[in-house]
Amino acid sequence: MLVFGSFEGQRLTLEIPTGQTVQQLKETIQNRLGISVDLYRQDKKVLVISYAGSDLGDDWVFSDLGIVPGTTIKIQLREEVKPVLYIRCSHSQETISLYDDITIAHSYLDKIRNMASMKSGLPVGIFRLTTEDGREMFDQHRLEDYGVDVGHTILLENWDGWNEFLNLAIMGFTPQLREEVKPVLYIRCSHSQETISLYDDITIAHSYLDKIRNMASMKSGLPVGIFRLTTEDGREMFDQHRLEDYGVDVGHTILLENWDGWNEFLNLAIMGFTPQVVSQIGGEEIVARYQMKVALFIAAHFGHVDLARAMLRQGVKSDDPTGYHPARMWCKEDGHIDALKCPVHEATFCGQLGVLRLFVNADVTCLKAKDGYDLEPLNIALRNKVKNCASFLLTKQWSKININKTFALHLATYTRLKKWCERAKERALLKYGQSKSTLRRRNFKTGPLVSHGILVDGFSQSPMTGKPKALLQREEKENKERERARPKFQVVLLATREKIMRGGAKSLTARSATSASSSTEDAGAETDGDKKATARRAAGPKKRRARVSSALLLSKAKSSEGSIPLPLISHEQDRRPFFYHQGLREDALVDSALELVSKYRGGDSSRERAIQSLTTANTFRDKPWLGQVRVALSLTSNSLKRNVRRLQGRKK
């Protein structure tokens, strides 16, 4: 491979054979430039080869780095500065070199610990410094008190069992890191069957359930009014109680249960499938309008602009609190404070600028809406440091609304006038009907509604158990069949006592025979119905293909935080199409190839090899992220090909 080298204004042409290491290339360059060994010894200089912002290691194979022919590399002579002190880290087995001006006789250990923290990236509270013979070194002492001299090595030791956790945190592997960190509490969602892990500062003895519900709402994206929290044995947990009142301890799991029959609706809203969400909304008008509020809140949390636009067209407002289900509106005065949160507040808090722009363009007065803490969207953006939303809201907050060509109002004044007009329209609708008001239907914000029942916490049977719609339909169908199979008795009303006496035993016997025959027929029908129901239950429900599983995995991969060098590991069990190559299925070829690679590469798995290659490629700072990925691919594939050629040469 032909590359070019730039050294102090000179341009060299270098022919690099495949498999040559960087150290061998340095020797070739040294001979080409005529650099004597005395220059290294007397002037204490070293030869350094750089590419894309990275100094190439001596043991790296040049052809494995993915450097294309014709590339120009930098060749430099740098002064060799010997470290004053070495620090060997126990978690990574790497050695940190301190080149700073350290005086062994006067340097205290607190300064050395500060330097070690800056070099390693670890906080000073999780490690200690020891000598090579195991003596712990304390901050108030100096290096010479422990017999440490220039060029010596000391040890950096962290907490036992923290090595894997620290290495994953340094490399930024978020999913693997979360497996290492033990959550304080788990919340299993009934709608998605996923488990939410709470890593926040939760004290089990003092944490009230209203705080836990707030965290569950922020993690799941659901408003607090559509779910309840229960223990694993089914006991409902109320906001005024603490976790320890229900026997919940650190590491335990509690359940998040939503309204029965809402699972499909919530999953589709979370994934932003607008047509499917609209098709799921139905039933009574007031319940359907509440579902639209919930869908708009979820769209604001996850940033689904199309779903939010569809809900706005249905008449839902972004400055209306999501509130509670019609069956629970009687308790809204004493409900959770986050039930007063509007979709515009949620979009601001989550930094969803696209949805926030949509809300402002639809109705600019939503900027003056206040949540349960009496905060406007601008206050929320500033307090949570949501920079993009705060900048947008600042440009709109003090804007003027043009009424006509010569008259304009401030936003606050215009908002108050608009609210007053809406109340006047609603009163006109109630008093005079639709002929005297521009409103076509009333906004239901007035409290409990007739015909929707009352749910009393702790007494009424809660319809919030998270049952899917298919199970509810099956139960309803079975109840109807059971009602139909129940025996029906005919009640005969006789007007006078004479008719009773006149009928005598004949009518009584006839009625008894009629009722007996009808009850026998109904009993037979009930027996047949029970047999059919028993047969259906024995056969079990029809298996349907889980259409949501792959989409849920995709949304989970998109929402993961941090830069992840490797993709998330999929746990999907659906069968995939397979292909044949020379009479063999592809999975047989791939599995056998990976086994051979692991055998001849020292037993490392494919994931471990990828991590090693990505760690090396990450040193090329001047390359973009995709360029670093290509370097990692080249490192892995070229090293494997070279090993295969070597093995083939030995066989010949």
Automatic annotation (TrEMBL):
Residue stretches making up the Ubiquitin-like domain: 1-79, 109-156, 209-256
Protein name per UniProt: Ubiquitin-like domain-containing protein
Lineage: Eukaryota, Metazoa, Spiralia, Lophotrochozoa, Mollusca
Biased composition (Low complexity): 505-522
UniProt-annotated stretches for the region Disordered: 504-549
Organism: Elysia chlorotica (Eastern emerald elysia)
SMART domains: UBQ (SM00213)
